[in-house]
């Protein structure tokens, strides 16, 4: 079956974008120390660790039994997601990664069960009906927003620490080189 004829072309696109944002966040946080993961840039912002905890909690709540239960689970304590209650470095990093991974695991398991015809199905979030397509779009937007925060905060903290930042996308001034390696752009014969 060609990709165009696949019963889950759109769902696969959502899954790929979720993976892309997850990868960016994880590559960014790998460049930051444990202590810096817990530093908010100012008193009105969240630390990277708190943002990761929130994303994990949100994804876990939204996508656990997504088509049969409300996306805002009664067991979720959203306000607690914004409290840094991590232990020491060794246990805390493990706790953080468990919270982050728990949400992603639920999301990925659910995405593996959806097909494009499911996108018209209705689910609820906080009692509000959504098509699966809308719920996925909102979840991806929410997750991408927070992953962008994670990357930006990581970049700022790495700079403050004097760490050489490894660019996660095309570096400034690198577009021509990228196009050259791809055989794209002026003189590439396209």
- Estimate the global geometry from the Cα principal axes: flat
Task: Give the percentage of residues in beta strands.
Answer: under 5%
Largest sheet: 2 strands, antiparallel
- What is the residue-averaged pLDDT? 92
Low-pLDDT ranges: none
Strand runs, count: 2
Helix content: 55-70%
CATH superfamily: dinb family like domain
| Domains, number | 1
The CATH class: Mainly Alpha
Radius of gyration: 19 Å
Helix/strand structural class? mainly alpha
Number of helices: 7
Task: Describe the protein in words.
The protein is mainly α. The chain has one domain: Four Helix Bundle (Hemerythrin (Met), subunit A), CATH 1.20.120. It has 7 helices and 2 strands, in the order αααααββαα. Strands 1-2 form a two-stranded antiparallel ribbon. Helix 1 (9-29) runs parallel beside helix 6 (132-160), helix 3 runs parallel beside helix 5 and helix 3 (48-63) runs antiparallel to helix 6 (132-160). The mean pLDDT is 92.
